[in-house]
Amino acid sequence: MALTEPLDPAGEAAGEAAGAATCAATCAATGEAAWQVRHWEVPDLAGLEFDPTLAELMREGPVTRIRLPNGEGWAWLVTRYDDVRMVANDPRFSRAAVMAQPVTRLAPHFIPDRGAVGFLDPPDHTRLRRTVAPALTSKGVERVRDKARLMLDEIVDELVRDGPPADLTATVLSPFPIAVICEVMGVPAADRHTMHIWTQLILSSSHGKEVSEKAKREMSAYFADLIELRENSTGEDVCSLLGAAVGRGEVALEEAVGLAVLLQIGGEAVTNNSGQMLYLLLTRPDLLDRLRTEPAIRPRAIDELLRWIPHRSAVGLSRIATRDVEIKGVRIRAGDAVYVSYLAANRDPDVFPDPETIDFTRSPNPHVSFGFGPHYCPGGQLGRLEEELLVDALLDRLPGLRLAVPPEQVPFRKGALIRGPEALPVTW
């Protein structure tokens, strides 16, 4: 990913030297062979191209060392399915410890705030997530199914009235997830646009650290006010549940706000994920025709598309090893930063035979597109519901749906942490 706020050359050189010195010192102290630290530049990738650096790292071995465009030092990267799940679920790898030391990272800023659920370990992590579980479990998600379908029908009605051509991202794939996550969060409809603007600024590195941090502060202040207003609420939306928990003294306001921000941001990932999904289907008529003629296979097909789509750039949040751990014969030292790649895990041939092939009959399909372990995406079930509704609505109501431009002319987002088309020009 091409960042518009790169590290200054002197700082970058110093960071490289520090990383190399640390590596050399570790190897000298342990007698281990020297490890190459791979500089992962993370270019902007168009279409559905799999990151070539990640592909190389996967070939080099199950555990490698990387340095990302921001932050300091180097980190281990784990790419095999079983190892990824182990690290994600093992208490010896701490998210909370990340805030206590500099770590190489993709974004120029930390997206969750200190104390947010993304940087908590159990039992604090478990305690905080439990407060919003009623809104995000299967039962909670089913509660919004009919409302979500109604909102989507209204959006598609407007699309049909206006007629082709249209930008599917602007007309459907963006407003629908925004409406759904705001409904689940308890954000008034009048504030949806502001939430969307904040989210886009937070999720992009192309505006620079200060712009992203300012947007995060403004969203946090908004949620602090909303949650405090609902301390005596009996509502079933996320902010009401958080407000009630704060009122009972079960969670601190700062914790509640951090969780709300993370959920709101994550809710808009559906825009990019569904954009990639629709782009794939519209450039693969064989897959699209099958979903049109065999609607019964759509839920399984969506799982396979979620497995295959390269939905993010590079990696997400790191963890810190709290003690020495061995992975595939590699000694991870206490204090080392560790990243897992869910994209790589989803293409592990030992788990997914012929992983490059999109197979709608793949079973079982234990993909980890929503993560794994305590930090499994809390909105995973909601995201899957939205993808199912979108595929049903667009394929059934627009049987002639197709790209309005050649595939190579579809613009993809630049400087984005979550990949997807900037616009998806279609006709029908």
Would you kindly provide a written description of the structure presented here, covering whatever features stand out?
By secondary structure, this protein is an alpha+beta fold. The chain has helices at residues 9-30, 52-60, 81-89, 124-136, 138-162, 168-173, 175-185, 192-202, 209-229, 238-247, 253-267, 269-283, 285-293, 298-308, 342-345, 380-397; strands at 37-39, 63-67, 75-78, 93-94, 166-167, 319-321, 325-327, 330-332, 337-340, 402-403, 425-427. It starts with 8 loop residues before the first helix and ends with a strand.
Structural descriptors:
428 residues; three-stranded antiparallel sheet; alpha+beta; globular; disordered N terminus
Write a concise synopsis of the structure shown.
By secondary structure, the chain is of the alpha+beta class. It is 49% helix and 8% strand.
What topology emerges from the helices and strands here?
Blueprint: H1 9-30, E1 37-39, H2 52-60, E2 63-67, E3 75-78, H3 81-89, E4 93-94, H4 124-136, H5 138-162, E5 166-167, H6 168-173, H7 175-185, H8 192-202, H9 209-229, H10 238-247, H11 253-267, H12 269-283, H13 285-293, H14 298-308, E6 319-321, E7 325-327, E8 330-332, E9 337-340, H15 342-345, H16 380-397, E10 402-403, E11 425-427
Parallel strand pairs: 1-2, 3-9
Antiparallel strand pairs: 2-3, 4-6, 5-11, 6-9, 7-8, 10-11
